[in-house]
Amino acid sequence: MRRGLPELVRPIDELHAVIVARAEPENAIALYILRGGEISEPFVLQFDDLASQPRSVEQILRELMEPAATESTDEASPKRTAGASTTACLEDHLALLARWFYSRPREGEIFFREPRPVGWPYRRILRACRRLLAPQGSEKHE
């Protein structure tokens, strides 16, 4: 039924994604996780600091994003029915998301969580981090 529509167009309860963008510290990436259309505060991955970590970047992403999948299904309905301020907040988040998504050129990339068994595309997210951290001159423009 959504054939021909952008990936962004989906029921709000199914709008789970992560936006990957460059962050202010050098060699850092900001992750904005969307849970039911609501945008979380950015989580900054500083790759210089991660080199000394015993965990892989993929493991850090899994720990960060997997709880989002279970929380969003458990908490999505009560939040939406809480009142007008919650609705206004969700509308603001969706407006910001749409403005960013349809902007050209768009800074960063978005990845959607697919229904089980697929889930989050961790390897694609990691490749996007590498592209975003590449020196500006080496990027390929569309």
Describe the structure.
The protein is an alpha+beta fold and 142 residues long. It has one domain. Strands 1, 2, 3, 4 and 5 form a 5-stranded antiparallel sheet that branches. Strand 1 and strand 2 form a beta hairpin. The longest helix has 24 residues.
List the helices and strands and how they pair.
Blueprint (H helix, E strand, L loop, with lengths): L16 E6 L5 E8 L2 E2 L3 E4 H4 L6 H24 L3 H18 L7 E4 L9 H12 L9
Antiparallel strand pairs: 1-2, 1-5, 2-3, 2-4
Q: Tell me the domain tally.
A: 1
Mean pLDDT: 82
Counting copies of identical and different chains, the oligomeric state is single chain
From the spread of the alpha carbons, the general shape counts as: globular
How many distinct helices? Answer: 4
Largest sheet at a glance? 5 strands, antiparallel
Question: Roughly how many Å apart are the termini?
Answer: 29 Å
Structural class: alpha+beta
List the uncertain runs.
68-81
* Order of H and E elements: EEEEHHHEH
Rg over alpha carbons: 16 Å
Task: Kindly state the number of beta strands.
Answer: 5
Strand content: 15-25%
Helix content: 40-55%
